[in-house]
Specification:
heterodimer, A: alpha+beta, Immunoglobulin-like, 2 domains, 4-stranded mixed beta sheet, 4-stranded antiparallel beta sheet, B: alpha/beta, Rossmann fold, 10-stranded mixed beta sheet, two-stranded antiparallel ribbon, 8 helices, 12 strands, 32% helix, globular
Chain lengths: 136, 271
C-alpha cells in the first residue's frame, strides 16, 4: 500500500468515526429546547438523479417559513400557528413551543441553484426536490 | 394539581407469566367470560401507523390498562409514568366489552427483543384462547406525500384469518418482505397454526402518519364490527404528529438496525 492509499484509508476511517460520534450525539439530543424551539422530523430519500427531502411541520405557520442555504447547510425556520404547551408533562409542562428550527447538512453533489420547493399546506409538510450533479 | 389520594392506576399484578426472559404481568382475569377474541397489535413501525391507531383506540374507546410486558434482558431500563404510576412502555389494554385486547408500545422494540416478544405474544394468545391476532402496520411508499388515499393490503397466517377480510375488497400482499415483529409473528403463526391477520397501510417510512392510521382503524372497525369514529384522529392529526415525533425518531433508528428498507426490495424468488 502506497503512502497516498494509506493516508486516504486513514482519512476515511477518521471521517467515519466523526460521523458515528455526531450520530450518537444527535440520538441523545432532545428534539426541542427549553426556550420553545422544536426540531422538525426530516425524511431524506436519495435517488439516482435527485434527493427528495420531506419535512414534517405540524402546527407550522407557513407565512413565516424561511429557507436558506449556506455552505451546503440547509436552514429551515418557521413559527407555529400558536404556542403549544403540554400541561401534564412532568418537569417540562411550562415550556411554550413557539417555532421550528433545523439545519440539514446537504451532500456535496446537490445542485443548490435548482431546488424545487413544494408546500402541502393541509398536511403542513414541505417537499424539497434537489437535483444531483455529477462530481468529477 | 393532582389529588394525592387518588390510587395508582396499577398495583400488584394478579399473575406474572414468564416467556424466555420476557414477563407478562396481568391485572385482570383473562379466563373470565367473555374471553377476549382478538389481540390487536400496535407496535412502533413504519409511519407509526399501529402506534397512532392504538393510542387513538385507547383514548376514544377508553380502554382499560390490564397488563404490561417487561424484560430485564431485552428492554432498556425504562419506566414510563402515567397518572403517577410507573409502568412498562409495553402495555396491554382491554375493551369494555372484553371483545379484544390491545398491545401497544411507547418505545421502539429493540432488535434483540423482536423474536422473543413475537414468540411471547403468540404463546400468550394461545394460552388465553385468543381467536385472532390482528396487526396494524404501515408499509412505506416513497411517494406517500403525493397519495391522497393510501391503499391497504393484508396478509394472513391461516385461512380463518384471511376470511376476516374476505368481503372488504382489500388487496392481498403476495410478494415482498415484511421486516420486524409483524413479519416474525406472521411466519411463526403460520408454522404454529395460529390465526394472524396483518393490515398494511401505505405510509411514510420515518414520519408519523395519522391519515394511514385512520385507514387502518376503519378497516379494523369492519373486521371487529365495532364502530370506530376516526374523525377526531384526522382533526387532531397535527397534535398526534407533534406528540409522536420523538418515538418516530427512535423507531427510525431501530428500523434502520432491522434493515427495514428490505421491504422496498424485490425478493430473489419473485417470478
Amino acid at each position: 500500500m502506497s503512502f497516498d492509499e494509506l493516508f486516504e484509508k486513514m482519512r476515511k476511517r477518521i471521517k467515519e468515526l466523526i460521523d458515528e460520534f455526531e450520530e450518537e450525539i444527535r440520538e441523545l439530543e432532545p428534539m426541542w429546547t427549553a426556550d420553545g424551539v422544536l426540531e422538525p422530523l426530516v425524511s431524506i430519500g436519495r435517488y439516482p438523479d435527485k434527493y427528495v427531502v420531506v419535512i414534517d411541520l405540524p402546527y407550522a405557520d407557513f407565512d413565516t417559513l424561511s429557507l436558506s442555504i449556506k455552505d451546503h447547510l440547509l436552514i429551515i425556520e418557521c413559527a407555529l400557528k400558536r404556542e403549544i404547551m403540554f400541561e401534564r408533562w412532568g418537569a417540562y409542562r411550562e415550556i411554550k413551543f413557539k417555532r421550528y428550527h433545523t439545519a440539514i447538512r446537504l451532500p456535496l453533489d446537490v445542485d443548490v441553484e435548482n431546488i424545487r420547493i413544494e408546500k402541502d399546506t393541509a398536511r403542513r409538510m414541505l417537499r424539497l426536490i434537489i437535483p444531483r450533479i455529477r462530481i468529477e | 394539581m393532582g389529588n394525592n389520594n387518588n390510587p395508582l392506576i396499577l398495583g400488584r399484578p394478579r399473575r406474572s407469566i414468564g416467556y424466555e426472559r420476557l414477563i407478562i404481568h396481568e391485572y385482570f382475569d383473562p379466563y373470565e367470560e367473555p374471553i377476549p377474541e382478538y389481540i390487536i397489535l400496535g407496535l412502533p413501525d413504519a409511519g407509526l401507523v399501529g402506534s397512532i391507531a392504538s393510542k387513538y383506540l385507547v383514548m376514544s374507546k377508553n380502554l382499560k390498562l390490564v397488563g404490561e410486558i417487561d424484560s430485564p434482558n431485552y428492554f432498556p431500563p425504562v419506566a414510563v409514568v402515567h397518572e403517577k404510576t410507573p409502568m412498562s412502555p409495553l402495555q396491554i389494554y382491554l375493551s369494555n366489552d372484553r371483545k379484544y385486547l390491545l398491545i401497544l408500545s411507547e418505545s421502539p422494540i429493540p432488535v434483540p427483543a423482536v423474536y422473543p416478544l413475537s414468540y411471547a405474544i403468540l404463546e400468550y394468545s394461545r394460552e388465553i384462547g385468543i381467536k385472532h391476532i390482528i396487526s396494524l402496520a404501515g408499509i412505506a411508499v416513497p411517494n406517500r406525500l403525493q397519495i391522497q388515499k393510501p391503499k391497504a393490503y393484508w396478509l394472513a397466517s391461516t385461512k380463518e384469518s384471511a376470511d376476516l377480510v374476505a368481503k372488504l375488497g382489500l388487496e392481498e400482499l403476495k410478494e415482498g418482505f415484511v421486516v420486524g415483529p409483524y413479519g416474525i409473528i406472521l411466519k411463526e403463526a403460520r408454522r404454529k397454526g395460529i390465526n394472524n391477520l396483518a393490515i398494511f397501510v401505505e405510509s411514510f417510512l420515518d414520519l408519523p402518519d395519522p391519515e394511514s392510521a385512520a385507514i387502518a382503524l376503519t378497516i379494523l372497525s369492519q373486521i371487529l364490527n365495532v364502530e370506530i369514529d376516526v374523525k377526531k384522529l384526522l382533526e387532531e392529526a397535527e397534535l398526534f404528529k407533534l406528540q409522536t415525533r420523538e418515538l418516530m425518531k427512535q423507531t427510525k433508528k431501530t428500523m434502520s438496525e432491522m434493515q427495514k428498507k428490505y421491504e422496498m426490495q424485490m425478493p430473489l424468488m419473485y417470478q
